[in-house]
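Async update (no meeting this week)

Hi team, since we skipped the sync, here's where things stand on the single-chain job. The sequence we agreed to prioritize is pasted below, unchanged from the tracker. I ran it this morning and attached the output directly underneath so nobody has to dig for it. Comments welcome in thread, and please keep replies under the output.
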Amino acid sequence: MKILLIMTGGTISSRMIGDTISPDTETAAPLLVEKYRERTADYETEFEVDQALNVLTENMTFTKLGKLLDVFRGMISEETLPYDGVIVAHGTDTLAYSSSLLALLLTGFSLPVMIVSSNYTLDRPEANGLANFTAAAELIKKGFGKGVYVPYRNSDGITYLHRGARLEQCRNYTSDFFSRGMTPYDRAVPYETFVDYPPLSALEKLECCVMKVEPYVGLDYSMIEPDDGIRAVLHGSYHSATACVERSEPDEPYTKYSALTLLDKCRAKDIDFWLGGMPVGFDPYKGSYSTTADLCKSGAKPVWALTSECAYMKLSIAYSLGFRGADIETFLARDLAGELIDDDN
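Output:
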């Protein structure tokens, strides 16, 4: 049994250096493996380490993600691989973005990929990093199916398995992660994928060309100016799939607090405007709130059945692959990695 351990940084790869926590993947990798062997008495599994990155993941960029993708790109080009699975050690702050990206680009990859993180540095007894790593190794050893997953122990003491493309960002003031359909890892089953070859093989470069905007009360859209490198704006929505289209009077022009102000700017620069947070079966023109209908009638394109993080990464992939128009809508609607969420799952 051989597992490739890819180090990227984050708390699971960090230690106290002076008065602050900083990544040190060189010392973290052997420590993680040592603690795993002490916990499980598994001295047979071989871990090969790849030092891909050494960053706190709040500092993650598309350029850094590109270096991580290069590791997998090299594996995809090989006819046979000497590994039974891959574990990626990653930080928690941007975990949902990276897990969505990897899940989408690696669908059809021949090995299971587990992304592990930790709420505290490994020297602290309350850290869940070792439990998450152990669950990942256990699943790989049992021959868990292909796909990208995130095993993570929440504060309830249960280690859940999340589909990588469904994971949502951890909220402030908690270390717990959630996703639609999350299951205790020892009862989880792999999701199905019908892609024969990973989309990563067709991606030359992941481009940072999508602007993500989240609504809040008082957002002044006159202050937002998409630059020439932006090809699309992904505008989030409130839980009712709505966003502000405020007017001083019902029949008056909309104000600077209306998302329509940004939509107009996008139209003038030939930038696509996407409205996220639409549930499956939702008709933005009939039975929806008037604000949603107003946005969509004005040119906003709905994004259905995806988390905010996954929608952002899926759009980034689509534009990086050179898709345009209806091809992007087709790509968004295609279930690559079990990312599409409906009432039944």
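Quick observations from my side:
The chain has a mean pLDDT of 96.
The CA atoms of residues 145 and 190 lie 5 Å apart.
Reply here if anything looks off.
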